[in-house]
Amino acid sequence: MSDKRAWGKMLLRSAAVVAFVAVVVIGTLGYVVFYGTPDKVDTMSTRQFASFMMDDPETLTSLGFLDGGILDFHSDELSDRSSTARVAKKDQARQFRKELDRYDRSDLSPDQALSWDVWTWWLDAEIAASQAE
Questions:
Q1: Rounded to an integer, what is the distance from CA 29 to the centroid of its chain?
Q2: What Cα–Cα distance (Å) separates residue 40 from each residue in 36, 50, 55, 103, 112?
Q3: Contact present, 132 and 99 (Cβ < 8 Å)
Q4: Residue 95 and residue 27: Cα distance in Å, rounded?
Q5: How confident is the model over 44-78, as pLDDT tens digits?
Q6: Rounded distance between C-alpha atoms, residue 105 and residue 122, angstroms
Q7: Is the pTM of this model over 0.90?
Q8: Average per-residue pLDDT for the chain
Q9: Which region holds residue 109: left if phi is over 0, alpha if psi is between -120 and 50, else beta?
Q10: Rg over CA atoms, the chain
């Protein structure tokens, strides 16, 4: 009987260690992808694009993202076009541009350099458009 208890305790400890390691790894990965500076510019630009889209329900609807499912929170919403929202979008674009400048373009692969070029072009256009208002 004590062998079964010993095995049970060992199994429980092993499961606890595996769960702890999984939480640490997933937490670290989540931080890097969602809050920190990802190691790939593609991950950064995807995160930034998703952030822009979450603030613009009309664009999400026109692109057909998340339509008709459990995550369809945007179909009956209008995008905020107030001056406060435009200022916030401009500030967000400037912040995203600063984050993108952390990457040295010369160190990027050709595919990543193209992503960097396209995303910086788009962010610069957003900033310039908001300054023209």
A1: 12
A2: 12, 16, 24, 9, 8
A3: no
A4: 24
A5: 888 888 888 777 877 777 776 666 666 666 666 77
A6: 16
A7: no
A8: 79
A9: beta
A10: 22
